[in-house]
Amino acid sequence: MIRAYKFLMRPTVRQEQALGEMLRDHCSLYNGALQERRDAYRHVSKTSVKYGQQSAQLKEIRAFDPERQGRWSFSSQQATLRRLDKAFAGFFRRVKAGGTSGYPRFRGVNRFDTVDFPKDGDGCRWDSTPHDPVTRVRLQSVGHIKINQHRAVVGKVKTVSVKREGRKWFVVLTAEQEQPEPLPVAGSVVGIDLGITSFLTTSDGEHAANPRYAREAAAKLEAAQQALSRFPHRRAKDRTRNHQRAVEKVAQLHGRVRRQRLDHAHKTALGLVRAYDFIAHEDLRIRNMSRTPAPSPDPDKPGAFLPNGATAKTGLNRSIADAGWGVFLTILHAKAESAGRDVIAVDPRNTSRECPECGHTVKENRPTQEKFHCVSCGHTAHADEVGALNVLRAGLVRRNANPAQREAAPVTGWRSHQ
Hints:
Blueprint: E1 2-10, H1 13-43, H2 51-56, H3 58-64, H4 74-97, E2 114-117, E3 124-126, E4 136-139, E5 143-148, E6 156-165, E7 168-176, E8 189-194, E9 198-202, E10 207-209, H5 213-216, H6 218-229, H7 241-275, E11 278-282, H8 286-289, E12 296-297, E13 305-306, H9 310-323, H10 325-339, E14 342-346, E15 371-373, E16 380-382, H11 383-400
Parallel strand pairs: 8-11, 11-14
Antiparallel strand pairs: 1-5, 1-7, 2-6, 3-4, 4-5, 6-7, 8-9, 9-10, 12-13, 15-16
Helix pairs in contact: 1-4, 6-7, 7-10
């Protein structure tokens, strides 16, 4: 299996300057390749330029501009061109599917923050000084950079990436390693219902609170963004020192919220994986759930529009984004794979409207956001608990359809395992 590691880099002043130049030159290569593709399609009878053609030009580009392009790793420049090719592949895929196309855009220097090295040892070397007590990574034309390695890297390092986040620099590794030993059998299964009031509710009736990190930081973010708005829009190289500080303040607050959200997702997912052998969750289409409602033209007044609930939907969309369901589910699946647990996504339709006692399914079964009351048999419960129980049952049906899966086990709590 492939596992990623992310470590903080401690470059010197000169190394930090060289890292910035590396990002700048790779950004220039990316934009130049994009311009070539645009010009070829517009002016040369709609000709499409492929990655192979642009990669074949790298040798000439490096010889023509040795100071800016010739000193960097050849394979890292190929990776930058593959990155552009991947952007175009996504664009054509979305066009074919009829969605929002999203044509690849030119990148400013401040929006190009990553350089990839496809192979350890080709332009880069992880742990380049194994006899030195301080871990270092060697980058071509940059040197040996100190690494704050907070945990051991298991397996063979395959790829290395350098990433800038604000004023900090990170190295991201991918290592190929054997499948780890699965966790001991817990003897329990669970279904989870993700929500806004509670971050998640389990089928055994436990609720995990929603921390709402973005809402907590909203006042500070608003003040920082108002301070930033007082400066006129300028290019990065023309910004004043105060303008740059205002930009960094906003980025710092957003970064803090993102890290808090990731930390909460990791800890919550780890608690579930340790406590349960099987986890079922709703197969949520988060992008569709947070879509802005379409405008409603007023048939009686041309040019006017009817109320469509856009204001309330904006608040709901903000809460969905703050909860971070997509990040949590991605982390949950990754941890479950490493631990040898089973995770299944089920159809979310009517999970909170179907009575777990008699199976009667109508909209009226859920009179409020939290209350469930079956109009057929009179069963009453918390709506999220009902949804989690129905998710678990649907997940067990899917799992038991595969004879290779283990039999279901009794349900127990998970808080004590965190």
